[in-house]
Amino acid sequence: MGVLIGSSEQRKRIASAVLIVVGVIAAVAVLRTVALTTAFDRFLWEFRFHTIERPVSGDIVVVDIDARSLNELGVWPLPRRLYADLTDHLAEAGARDIVFDIDFSSASNPEDDTLFAAAIERAGNVSLAVFRQAASAEQHAGEVVNQPIEQFLNVAWPVVVMVPMETDSRIWRNLYGFEINGNSEISAAALLGEYTGDAAGSFGIDYSISLEQIERVSLVDVLNKSAAPGLFLDKKVIVGASAQELRDLFPVPVYDVLPGSVIQALGAETLLQNRAMEVRGEGIAVLWALLVFFALLLTKIEGWSLKISILALCAIMFEIGAIAIQKSAPVLVPTASSHLILLLAAASIVLRELGFHKFLSHIANVRRRNSERMLGLVFDDSFDAIVVLQNDGRVSAASQMARSLFQSDALVGKPARNVLPLELVEEALSVLADPGNRQPVAKILDMRLDDGRRRFIEYVVTRSERTVAKSKKLRDMEIEAVACLTCRDVTEEKESAERLAYLARFDPSTGLFNRNGFEEEVAATLKLARGTAQEVCLVQFAIANFDQIVASLGFSYGDQLRETVAMRLKSHLSARTTWAAITADVFAGVFRCEPDQDLALIESLQEVIGEDYKIEGARISVQLKFGYIVSSGDMTPEHLLKKSGNALAKVRRNNRSPVLRFLPEMDAALQRRRQLETELFKAIVRDELHMVYQPLTNLADRSIFGVEALLRWDHRELGPISPAEFVPIAEENGYIVELGAWALNRGMKEALTWSSHLRLSINVSAIQFSRGNLVATVGEALQRTGFPSDLLDLEITESLFIDETLDLKFAMEEMRAFGCSFSLDDFGTGYSSLGYLPKYPFSKIKLDKTFVRQSIASKQDISVIEAVLHMARGYGMSVIVEGIETGEQAERLRELGCKYGQGYLFGRPMSSANLQSTLLNAA
Fold it and tell me: Which domain covers residue 583, as residue numbers?
């Protein structure tokens, strides 16, 4: 009877095991229908390729048409003559086979195609790419064959370069060959891999072959013959594109993306090493997995965890065995189905031994423990300091941040009054005592730490409840209120806000008000002055030579100078004046004063601020300029700043006086200046500009040999505008570059219409050198107009030499190469003129009219003129004297040796037409 019972139980156990195994097999079959096992297998194969590294044969070299080649060659498609040169270079270097993975299906120019065909024939071992691709929209449907033109096919071998793409859009296999136009053509990989079998079907690529070891060389290095000597000797060479913009790139396992030529090289390496990968062994792996699963179901071993460990070990052994097989033979073992069987087996064993409800309970307990652990970590690692207080005033919980903030490692269990600030404790206890649902309100606590540091703590107290057991009975529970105190150290935010508030009104370097803060102070001063007999004076002063100080000594000295100026203002002049730092070199002050008492403070300013400074051993002298305005209090702060700033700007342009008060009539001048600046940009378009020409004359016979071209502006509403007025405006806003270019082109164009070939002198500005490209402007004007460059004189004033950053000599030499000449204008009125003459390529000197007196009778004037003439002869230069107005002056200058002159005696500036009439009359 016992035997019968035992055998009955055993039959039930076997039947149950069989049913479970059948269910697992069915589940795996369903997963296979959705290609899950295929994706898993490919993942495992890629992992195995990563674990195995196989060296290359060394027989293959890839020539890359890479990004560097495209950049240096600068064209795509590449000319066929370059491919001809490449073929000749490879053949001369001893290449065994040459394969071009490049589309040659269309003709280039006949000359280049002939050169390439000849190079292929000379080499005798060249193969060209053949492939099929989907037809374009213009070709309607189907596929088209791309093969080399007949001229190339007559001398080269066709090879297939297509690669099949799998369902995961990656390249796992290569072709042995393919049928093209009814002929079975071998693939590039099969040709290079020395395959001699049937040119049909495909083979798996071995991606464990080390791609880094394949020799790759840039196309330009081969063309330049800079590749390593002997690199191509008896090697198989494949030429293809790897530059991203050429889009011959394919997704692959292991290496993510590879060029088509490199995939062909890997395919060739696979065949050379007899590593054409095959997929085998899935059935054996599945059978072993089922046998292990069935044995575990029948065994009497207790404990699901041990059985799962056995299944996991079995899965690991499958992979170790698959890797070992793949390393020794070209076999990819599909183990995905067997792994899924083991995974489902583990799930069924757990459910079978624990029971479904016990399993769910186990999962719930695990989740609860994980949640409690996670909440504990969140609580303890919170960026906020969190403290929980009980009804009795003791701390029941505290986060790590709380222990750090309140400088105590033992908060839990301590009375809150002993370890926390009293204000926080009182707030928490008041919340506990209030049963109502009052809204939590964030507050700021100003706290002093034991080390004296000041900290700002933002905190909020919330009331919560928890359920606790009064006794061991499960139903004997009660509700207990707790206070949760959440704190955050906002010291940095508070200090940053205070710092921003300070920076909004003060200059951080000097401690004076900045412009925003100063405008508020000016408004307050104006308010106090209204209704009184006092006036408000706003003064701005600038350190005119601040940029030179910084340039010579450095920025640190500039900062220290500003700080020292601010200290003097605070120490000596702050009794009734509010001071501000408006910009790096401009300071401003505002004060109330009695009528006609405004200059007293400015005089004090000149004395206190104008005194020399000693900074780090350097003695610094400052040049001060003052602009100020006095108002009865009816102006706004913005207007006071604007008008005093206008006065300062004007006095900075005028070196004659250091102090200027803003007067009402200056508004009209400033308004006119702004209007002219706006209108000047429209002058060329409106055709309001024109050129006039003043003759340059031979003093001996009064004949005209040249003219000086002068720019004039006749505004349609304002009338004629003096160059002395609009040229400085154009130089300040940089528009002189466009005006100068226009004047050059117009002057040359009109000069070509005159009956005589005259020299043309045109002034150029320093701004044309610094902001524009004067060399290009002159060159373009000469080319556009066709004016003879040897008749062009460019007049340069000595102000150009002040800016030492300009490479003036280089620019002048470039323009002299055009054929132009240079005149040094206004000679004798500038700086160190004699030093410029030998340094720069001048051919003429224009002596300023200030040396031409009414009679030229004084010994001093004669000495200066004779000295200039003697010096000019020494340097091989000619002299033109400006400002000749009388015949007596002209005759006296001629007697002194002057040959050329200019002035009203010979003609005032005139239009091109009037000059032409003058020339005709003289003829």
Answer: 505-663
- Residue 138's Cβ-count burial label (10 Å; 0-12, 13-18, 19+) is exposed
- Paired with 794 in beta bridges are 762, 822
- State the number of CA atoms in the 13 A half-sphere of 25 facing the CB: 14
Rounded CA separation 157/128 (Å): 6
Domain termination residue (choose one: 463, 495, 527): 495
272-275-280 Cα angle (round to 5): 155
If pLDDT is split at 50, 70 and 90, which confidence band does 907 have? very high
| pLDDT (average), residues 347-370 | 62
Do residue 541 and residue 569 come from a single domain? Answer: yes
For residue 372, tell me if it sits in a domain.
no
Residue 671 within a domain: no
Q: How many CB atoms lie within 10 A of CB 485?
A: 24
Q: How many domains does the chain have?
A: 5
pLDDT tens track for 407-446: 777 778 778 777 788 888 877 788 777 766 667 787 888 7
Side chain identity at residue 919, one-letter code: L
**b/e map of 665-699 (b: 16 or more CB within 10 Å)?**
ebeeebeebeebeebbeebeeeebbebbbbbbbeb
Please state whether 303 falls in left (phi above 0), alpha (psi between -120 and 50) or beta.
left
> Computed from CA positions of residues 289, 292, 296, 297, in that sequence, does the dihedral angle turn out positive or negative?
positive
SS3 assignment, position 27: helix
Contact 438, 426 (CB under 8 A): no
Q: Are 79 and 115 in contact (CB under 8 A)?
A: no
Q: Which residue's structure tokens are 């071009």? A: 100
237 falls within a domain: yes
How far is CA 397 from each of CA 393, 478, 481, 873, rounded to the nearest angstrom? 12, 20, 14, 101
Residues 419 and 490 in one domain: yes
Question: Do 176 and 154 lie in a common domain?
Answer: yes
Residue 430 and residue 424: Cα distance in Å, rounded? 10
| pTM tops 0.70 | no
